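Our working data are protein records whose layout never changes between entries. Getting from the letters to the tokens is the skill we practise here. To make this concrete, we reproduce a full record directly below:
***
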Amino acid sequence: MSLLRDNYSLIKSEYMRQWLLQGKLTPGISQAISRESSLLESEWLMLAVVKVDGFRTTSENYDFQSRKLYKYAIGNMAGELLQQSGCMTEFVDFGGDHLAIMIAVPQRTTELRSVCLALSRQVAKHTGLEVTIGLSNAYRPHDHWRKVYDDVCELTLFKFIRGEDKVYTEQDYEQYAELNSTLEDDWLDSLIGTIRSGKEEWVQEELEDIFRRFHQMKYGECQFQLRLLLFTVVKSFSKLTSIQSIDGIDHHLKQFARLEDVSGWLREEIHRIISTLSDQRGCNRREKLVDEMLQYIHYHVHDPALSVDQIADHVSLSAKYVRTLFQEHQGISLSNYILGERIKKVQQLLLQTDQPISDISEQCGFQAKSHFFTAFKRATGMTPSQYRQQEQGGEGGEGGGHMHYA
């Protein structure tokens, strides 16, 4: 009997839970609650639901026992504040992101919004948790409380759409019921196309219009459209988003307490995607420019007039930028690359023809003989005659005549 008495508070909580979930106050439930509480002596009751914002993040930061203690503390804070207003309370922890508080009020017209607002501020101050509170009208103990509970739970979702730090009451349903915005059939295709275009100003305008419409949707429809939006963005730019998989979308969305928070995060995400795409395009363009330079050198290596300035004119860039770009991509200066290509051409003609060396040097773009002989020996370690003799004689094999450039 003593053991049973020690657990009456747990039994009371379980019967309170059954009352709200079943909706009806049966004799058995009434008896069990009345044994430990004077709640049912009141003619009028109100229900407050305290929802922890961003509960997914809270779950990751705190273990089950810590979360339970936090909600217990919230229930006690509510009891102390409401007692000062002449109310007595009983709270029920449903194990998820919210706490249900049954409030015995002295009269039907009791005003508790200011007390509940004070509670949310006190919770933030003492626990660091942000909460949203929904508050019902006053009902009699034998009314249908499951509907009241469901409605008040839905009230706590209004903050996501409305973004207001307030206590949400049943009077807010009137405005909420009028929400019925829609989007055009091609809104996602239009947004993705604009992102790919790189026109960030246009993207931000489209996002502003999309989220304006989200603000005019009911919570369920808004969540569906948000998931669809994130699914499409992740699918279209899978390697560029911070969400690494489709499975992570729901997890990510649950971190946000307000629609405007999602909007801010998505704007930053898309800005980063556009910047990355722009960098990639710039990289691709630079690669194409270098390829164009290489091709131009290949076809004009025999021309003594071939120079960095001539190549820069061909690709319509400054000589300074052309030098820098070529060095970054090829790991060698442009002038040394041209010289190297001319030396390779000389080597090829020395081995494949019997032309005089002086003719070969001219065909390969060398104007001054002294410069040609100096450059060839610096690159290969031997004179053109020695190179031809060694290579044709087979003394050096394939390893002879390595080129070196400063």
